[in-house]
Each structure stands twice: as structure tokens, then as C-alpha cells.
Amino acid sequence: MKQKIHILLPIALSIFLPLLGLISRSLTTEMDFVSTQFYGFWFKFSLLFYILWHLLDKTPKLFPTQKILGVLITVLLWCLIAYLAIEVFDILSDKVIRSRQVIRFSVVTALFLTIQYTLRTIKNNTKLALEKKQIEAENYKTQLQSLRTKVDPHFLFNTLNTLRIMVRNQHEETEKFVMSLSDFYRQTLQYNENSTIELEKEIEVLEAYLFLIQSRNQAGLTIEIAIEIELQERFIPTLALQIVTENCFKHNTMTTSKPLHISIKNVENNYISIRNNIQPKFTAKKPSGHGLENIRQRYELLGIENGIDIQQTDDFFEVQLKLI
Question: Is 141 exposed, middle or buried, given 0-12, 13-18 or 19+ CB atoms closer than 10 A?
Fold first, then answer.
């Protein structure tokens, strides 16, 4: 569409501007609207205006860093076009009318320069906006890459410590624990390059992660996952569910007497709700909120508004993620 504007606009201006001038002149002279002279003048002026447009348009491109030289050449081009209009085509003979025509050419030249400057400004602004968007995309991609490949040292330490205890006690689910740990990291690496992932696969990653957590906190954690099968074919930002669920463990305590309850289910308007009861840890360090902000930015990068919704009361904290 933008390319068509650059092609059609000079044609339209070259046709209609001379037509308006000739009609105005015909109203005050004896020139006939249907005469050969009228159409001859129209064709000649249209051709001149079309040439003028492209000469004016090419000059700044030939001298992008020498603006003064570009201005001087533009003036010379205008003089050349005016000379062609008056002398070569012998369009006008009366000196008074010639003076008026020079003024009209000046106005047309100024109009063309203004339109071309506006078009170049719009093009440059669009290019700058696109480059800015690309830079932001690269930054988000770098942040996402860092987030995906980052291994929480506390999670890894606690997981390996749990595995050591299970091996020592010859726990019957030791092998399943090792397989879940392997699946979790394998799937995390497998989907590392994807911006989005099918909800079904995201749930598989989440279940492997949750099994590792539950193995350490069996009596202190209850988890409910209830997502309709047909929705699992939809997409979601990669590891978004795991990040939100991990926040539940980071900011809340889990004990046998006060278990942490997490429910993950679909709600209306194609959102997935991750909700937990609030049992804040006694720590002086405030939550950074980087994980949720990262997810918000990823939705924006995908062009999705209201991708994440956060609700909090005295009793629960809920994050809703929009399916794609």
C-alpha cells in the first residue's frame, strides 16, 4: 500500500493540479474546455509537473549529507522546469501571464517539497519505530533466553538434596523422581527457542516440575490442575505457567499444619488461572516482580493486550494468563 502511494501520488498531483489551473484560467479567458489547445496545455503541464516531482524527489537522495548543495540544485531544477514551461513549450506569451505562471510554479514546487518532506519524515519515523521495536524484541529475547536457561541454585540444591535422601532411604519413587528431574530439564532445553508453546506441552513441563516440589513437601502442598482438553491445543508464552507457579513457592511457606494450596484451571474468556492461598515468608526482601513483568512484556511483544491479569486479596493471590 505504501509503495502504491509513492507511485500514484505524483501521477495524481501532476494530472489534477494543471487541470485546476487551466480550468481557473479558462473561466477568465476564451479558452474552450474541449479544445485541442486546452488538452495540449494540460498534457504539457502534467508532464512538466511529473518531471519536477521526480527531480525534486531525487535531489535529497543524491546529496544526503550536503543539504546546502541539495537546496542549490533544487533551485536550479526549479529554474530549469520554469524555463521549459515558458520557453521550450512556448505555452505562454504574455509577460503578465508568464509572471503569474512563475508564481504558480513556485507554489507547486513548494507544495511538492512539503509533501515529499512529509513523506520522508513519515518513512523515517516508521523506520525508527521499527528499529526500536526490533531492538526491544532482541532485548526481550535476550531476557527470555536468560530466564529460560537460568537454573535456580536453591531449587537445584534442594532437589539434589532430596534425591540424596530418597536414595539413602531407598524410597520407592526414587527412579520416578530422577526421571521427572531429567524430563524437566530436557523439556526446558527442548522448548528453549520457542516464544510460545502448546498448553498441553507446557502442562507436561509443569507436572515434571511440580512432582519434584511435591517430593520434598508432600504434606505441605496440594495442587489441583483442571484444564479442559480442547483448550490444551491453544498456545501460551513458553514456561509462563512454570514461572507463575514457581513464584507461589518463592513467596509462601509450606508446612504440614499450614499447607500451600495451588489451583490451576481455565476460566472464562480463555484465561488460565493460577491461584494460591497467601502464607508469606518472613523475609525482609521484597518480591522483585521481574518474573510477572517478563511475562507481561512477552505478551506485548506478541501483540496481545491484557495478556496477564493479577488479582490479590488478604486470602489469595491469583494470576490469569491469556491463551493464544
Answer: middle
pLDDT digits (tens, 9 = 90+) for 108-160: 777 887 888 888 888 888 888 888 877 776 776 666 566 555 545 666 777 78
Distance CA 166, CA 169 (A): 5
Identify which of 238, 302, 225 has the alpha carbon closest to the alpha carbon of residue 264.
Answer: 225
Looking at residue 115, its amino acid is I
Would you say 274 and 321 are in contact if contact means Cβ atoms under 8 Å apart? Answer: yes
- DSSP per-residue string spanning 167-195: HHTT-TTHHHHHHHHHHHHHHHHHTTT-S
pTM: 0.54
Per DSSP, the three-state class of 47 is helix
Q: Give the pLDDT mean for 37-66.
A: 73
Residues 6+ apart with CB under 8 A from 319: 244, 247, 273, 274, 275, 292, 308, 309, 310
In 3D, which of 119, 86, 87 has the Cα closest to residue 104? Answer: 86
Residue 37's φ and ψ, nearest 5 degrees, are -60, -40
C-alpha cell at 35: 479544445
